[in-house]
Each structure stands twice: as structure tokens, then as C-alpha cells.
Amino acid sequence: MDLAALLDLRRPGVYPVRVVGQALKDRGIHHGDVLVANAAADPRPGRVCVAIVGLDVILATLGQKDGTWWLRPSNRPPVAVDGDVEVWAIVEALVRFRV
User: Fold this and answer.
1) Global confidence as pTM
2) Which residues neighbour 52 within 8 Å (Cβ) at sequence distance 6 or greater?
3) Which of the 8 DSSP states describes residue 29?
4) Which distant-in-sequence residues (6+ apart) come within 8 Å of 57 by Cβ?
5) b (16+ CB within 10 A) / e for 33-44
6) How many CA atoms lie less than 13 Å away from 50 in the CB half-sphere?
7) How many CB atoms lie within 10 A of CB 60?
8) Cα–Cα distance between 35 and 9 in angstroms, integer?
9) Looking at the chain, which runs of residues are DSSP E strands?
10) What pLDDT, on the 0 to 100 scale, is given for residue 35?
């Protein structure tokens, strides 16, 4: 089986991202999981995203209130998406390897 073909990893802007830590374990995303992140996908409330906050790369759930986008990580307070915060990619799939 060609995992890259199955997950469409050859498409421009689609990347595998390995999870480090327990950032979104309440959403079923655990340390060591591989996420398929699409940098070209449109953000929508409730979707999980890979974001850059200052110098940190985080996983968070997207939310929107009064026209402002918010990141809701599991391990810190919500963060408004502004000049210091960038939504880099939207998570489209999760791969968990069992050894």
C-alpha cells in the first residue's frame, strides 16, 4: 500500500505532521500521531489546525466569534488570530501507527 498516495501527500500544500506532546488529546490526537495538514484548506469553525503562535507551533481547534478567529488549544487559554498568530494548515486526517 502506498500511504503517500492514499493520503494524497503529493498534492501541493499537503504535509505530514508528527504530534509531539498531548496538545489535543481531548480530540483524540495523541503524542506520536501523524496528521495530514493542508496549508491550502479554508479555515472553518470546529476544525483542528496547525498554528504558529509567536515562536511556538501548536495544535488548536478553530473558533470564530464576532468576526474574529480564535484558537482553542487544550493546554492554554484561547488565543485570537492576529498579527503574531498564523493558522498554517488545517488538519484533514490522522494516522496512528501501532507497533
Assistant:
1) 0.85
2) 58, 85, 86, 88
3) -
4) 50, 51, 88
5) bbbbbbeebeee
6) 24
7) 26
8) 11
9) 14-18, 34-38, 48-53, 56-65, 68-72, 79-80, 85-95
10) 93
Q: Residue holding cell 473558533?
A: 63
CA 76 vs CA 10, 47, 71: distances in Å: 34, 17, 10
- Per the document, the length of the chain is 99
- Whole-number Å distance between alpha carbons of 54 and 57: 8
Task: Find cell 485570537 and name the residue.
Answer: 80
Classify residue 5 by its DSSP letter.
H
Per-residue pLDDT tens digits for 39-87: 999 999 999 999 999 888 999 999 999 989 999 988 888 999 988 899 9
Report the pLDDT value the prediction gives residue 62, as an integer from 0 to 100. Answer: 96
